[in-house]
Amino acid sequence: MDITRYKPGIIQLQVLIWVAVLLLIFFSLLPMDGWQKSVIYTVVNTLSYAIIIYGNILILYPALYQKKSFVWYGITVILFLIVTGVLRGYASIILYQHFLLIKPFPLNLLMLLGYVPGGVLIYVLSLVFRIAIAYFTLKQQTEEILLQKSQAELNLLKSQVQPHFLFNVLNNIYYRVYKVDPLSAGLIERLSDIMRYFVDESPKEVVPVATEVAFIENYMALEKIRIRHGASIDFEKTYNPELRIPPMLLMTFVENIFKHGIDKSLKQNQVHISLIQQDGYLLFKTSNRRVDPVTGDQPGGFGIANLTKRLSMLYGTKFELTIDSEGELYTAFLKIPV
């Protein structure tokens, strides 16, 4: 869990919580200990609480516990709490002696270890704190997904200018063209299927992977028309026909192939695409010759950036997206859970 990925609202919530903790500790001690001692105790203890909480939820928990290194996680937590407690005790005593003019006295390890038990409760609270942050993060992501879905549906409605009328017209054109030019008629049929996909399938949350593949193949067939010498596309497919995935999830990579990976002057344009279901994941990989573009969706471009954001909202950190644009080949790899 990376704190830099938190939304502004979650960061503000954490700031408010820590301000409340500071004020609560300070004013609860003020009547008995005076303002100097209260300030020292408040600052030192609040800082140690923050180290324990964020050290656990940002470093120890994701680095060890989430990777199922439970024994090492337990050992590391114990050592972490001991070190934090000893440092807290040492800082408190030294600051008391310096600012309150207390006569220095010798410190021993047993005295400093007395500060360790207080960190155990804070460690438990760090787990609760992490659950709370995860809840609010998920809530915000859900709201964003719903907002994007509503906006997409609105945009789709705006773009649907009598779609069934257009389909009927395309069908009529198809039957007329088929009599004289079956190849062109086939392309018209593919165009009709693409339009139906946009109207009927893309608004859905998930679609059969076979439907997504058919859409990609129709798109590639139409794109080939623009290539002077054509392109050799090897599409490897191994997946469960019952599998469903979010629509338009794989299209960005295929679009990039035809936008930036095809040299229309060459007679040999080799493209390899694979879609494989394996060990609870769906692996999608594209590989094509690298053609230096002037503009477009290269690594860091809008297409890849938007796809990454969508993947984060759909899968959190449970996906893998890598792009290799070095050398002669441009390779994109996507791994999502299914």
Automatic annotation (TrEMBL):
Pfam families: His_kinase (PF06580). Keywords: Kinase, Membrane, Transferase, Transmembrane, Transmembrane helix. GO terms for molecular function: phosphorelay sensor kinase activity. InterPro entries: Bact_2-comp_sensor_kinase, HATPase_C_sf, Sig_transdc_His_kin_internal. The lineage of its organism: Bacteria, Pseudomonadati, Bacteroidota, Sphingobacteriia, Sphingobacteriales. GO terms for cellular component: membrane. It comes from Mucilaginibacter frigoritolerans. This is Histidine kinase. Residues 152-228 form the Signal transduction histidine kinase internal region domain. The chain crosses the membrane at residues 15-32, 39-64, 70-91, 112-138. The keyword Oxidoreductase does not apply.
